[in-house]
Amino acid sequence: MAMTMQVDIVSAEKTYFSGLAEFIAAPSILGEVGVYPRHAPMLTRLKPGSVRVKKAMSDEEELVYVSGGILEVQPDVVTVLADSAIRGADLDEAKALEAKRRAEEAMKDKAAAYEFARAEAELAEAVAQLAAIQKLRKRR
Amino acid sequence: MAGGKEIRTKIKSVQNTQKITRAMEMVAAAKMRKAQDRMRTSRPYGEKMRVVAAHMSRAHPEYTHPFMSAREGAKRIGIIVVSSDKGLCGGLNTNVQRLALGKIKGWEKEGTAVDAAAIGNKGLGFLQRLGANVVSSVTGLGDTPHLDALIGPVKVMLDAYSEGKLDALYLFYTKFINTMKQEPVMEQLLPLTSEKLAGNDGIWDYIYEPDAKNVIDLVLRRYIEALIYQAVAENMASEQSARMVAMKAASDNAGNVIGELKLIYNKTRQAAITKELAEIVAGAAAVG
User: Less Cβ crowding at N or C end of chain B, within 10 Å?
Assistant: First the structure.
């Protein structure tokens, strides 16, 4: 039997995957990383993309789309802490401003910067989602 | 004594109220189940985050993130008050507001300024009435908490802390214990206390990508967000439970009122009949 590790893919709003796996590939911010069991402890940021999990004792692969997050690797446990929202420095900043603005109750003018940053982040996510779908199709 | 017709109208109106409260009770019961499920599904993420943050605090002694270092003599404190958007949920919001009010008064007495963020309509109203310095807010969350909506107000507070404008950050919300019991609580978010992260040992470090500072900052921010998200989810479960209990009590009370009114109505009716009979008998006696 091949070596296995516990893999959990969770976000604040739901659990995507939890189980034993032989291999996992995740879109790190510096490029895709592949992790086999007994990997050295590692902590890395993820960018939008798909996480590939090769499940233990089956040829099946699980494909989970994440819009960013954190990958934590320990010898026997791999955890993907996925973001449940579309994130981005500009977007977060815009949201913070939005919250402030709401508090000040200057409800009149819509912040154009907010809309633009949001559209930009949504576009990036849509592109990554398309890539994930294409990957899925190729395998069928 | 009131006439029969007035009492009948009154009974009708109380019955209508009871119908409404009973419907609200059932809606709250259905929503409560969902809210509790959501509260539970968000737990693994928070738990994993806590474990990662705990590892990190042990593994990386040469760099202390500002979130982790305690500051002496807090001059300005940030609070986040989580409340419901709607009322009719018993003492839920009042309790958490009372707790917050006590703490705020205490801090003000010590000369500590307070910056507040409101999550939920009721809390916002409370803070505004109080004349607190509300720096950010989010309302109208609906029945499902979305992290998306919370990022803004949380970031405002975290940034203020990073810049040194705030020396501590506290969170007020209603903790869900069970359907009958919810408790207002205050939690310290920043600086991160070590007992919250305790539980792991061993001396080893991660490989950080792209670099340690960057990743640690991200993890800690996400961790705080996860804590707040969890608090909002718990608050929503508490809200629905509290509403269900409050509406059940209201329906029961309405039932009691209806019972009493019916008794009065019947007595009045009986009295009227008796009076009429007495008159007829008296009339017959006079004629005969």
Answer: C
